[in-house]
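Changelog note: in this version the structure field was regenerated for every chain. One regenerated record is shown below for reference.
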Amino acid sequence: MAVIVANSIDYSASYRQFFERNDTLVFYAPPQKFSQFKQYANILIIGGPDAPETREVVHQVLTDSEMAFLRQKGNAALFEKRNVWTENQRIFIIGGWDRYATSNAVWEHIAYVSSSLLDSEYLSMAGEIQWMKDDLQGGLARAKREDRLTLVYIWASWCAWCEKMEGEVFTDAHVKQVIAQYYVPVRLDFDKAKNADFAHRNYVWGTPAFLVFDGDGKKVGFMDGFQEKERFLTRLLRYISP
């Protein structure tokens, strides 16, 4: 999984489509929102040192000599950096002396970047999701301390769709990575009276169901019923980048 950082001129949806055809999950973050994603393990920055909006991000990563190279007419390049904003982080920067050189460089190097992102060294293969069981208040408090969102999963032992969710969706490496990085996961047993009462107050009448709360305990999201993996990931990513 990776985040693509680029301005609206340098970004193309065809880049994301290429990655997804090659089994690499990516999503787009405009430079104005990049501060929310600095801790991401894999980041692709598209644009040179003078690209509108993106330049501030590029200047944090490239050296003066690397930026000078990209400013020379006709030049373009791929740079790889490690651990710029956090440990175990891989940064790719593709840029050129103008937008056309940048676009050509993206298509020259995109296959390499895609294959690199599939390297298990950089794709989080976390173990089981570390649910806090039947402890909503504890989860909300932890999320506030750690500046995360709280993902509340309401389930039941008799729920076949819950079993399907746990067997097909919660086991996915991308899902586990997003939850581990941005959420405090809380699991509430619907058959327990206090949990059922909480669910009903939030208009949940069946399982599975998901509620998302921000760091202040405000409800910002709701998902009802079984969620296909792609839809679930899309919603999780949307809540961390409203």
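Spot check on this record: The chain has two domains: 2-117, 132-240. The two ends are 19 Å apart (CA to CA).
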